[in-house]
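Let's do one together. I've listed all components of the complex below, 346 residues spread over two lines.
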Amino acid sequence: MDFNGSDTIPGPRTEDHLPQTAEAAVKIVIVGGFGVGKTTMVGSVSEIKPLTTEETMTQAGIGVDDNYGSETKTATTVAMDFGRISITDQLVLYLFGTPGQERFWFLWNGLFEGALGAVVLVDTRRLEVSFDVMDRLEERGVPFVVAVNTFPDGPRHPLDDLRTALDLSEDIPIVECDARRRASSRDVLMTLLQFLHSLALEKAPV
Amino acid sequence: MTPPQRRRRFPKASQEPTPQPPQEGQDPPEGPKKNPERLYVITGPDGTERSELDLVTLIVAHADPPPSATPEQAALLRLCTAPLSVAELSAYLSLPFSVVTVLLTELLTAELVTARAPVIRQALADRSLLEAVMHGLQRL
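Okay, and this is what the predicted structure of the assembly comes out as:
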């Protein structure tokens, strides 16, 4: 058979099946540079082992490629890790981690369409990576919060200094987190949801 | 140590959007809407249009693979006996999202699967939806 062993394709484990009542899904995107802890964050709150979906790099993407982070291979496909949280028997939340560098923005088509919002995950050792990401999100009108993943060896700045450095307007929340810890990652998502909720209230008061 | 400084390309992002003059022949919007409403269309039986599938569209098979199904289609159908997102199908099959979309479009046309459209962010996120997600997160 051409499509090798369709019987052996690993599917979800029985305990990973969604109930038949699941009828709708929402998504949140976690965006940041390489090694900032996107997959760690997805994994720490996901009810399933994080999965990976790949997409092929377009010509345009290859054209603007540079060597950063891809010295060892020719990047023709880009992987996105994602996880899942069942909210109710009907509603499921998916979390996607996506690289923030400009050459991966082709992945964003479709990804941010209809996403509730985004978490910009920041590494104080490489703050610059998040600059373009935030510009792009603002351009697209995607609401986001900023989470600073605290690395033991990373420079520590007071959040107010980081807010200034990132030129974040006062209304956008910025929090510190430890992406390895479920409770901490959960709190980041909660911060985003509360922010979205306040935006909704602001725009359509009761 | 001073962190590097970002220069915002859109310095006015936090300011009020310029009010648009109402267009003639259009109902006045209920509130300021920055984004056009996004519509996801799942095609009917004629299947002439390509289905708009999102990464988080949930797919459910409602039939066993027919003998005529290709191996890829059969694999897909076996995977989604319980609802599964397009992203998960892509991951388990190790096929790019775009390829899975094509396969699913065929299966949707053949009415072997149904698609449960994702909840999408409107100009305004639905408060009750956000509250539901918050409650779900609190239980984590």
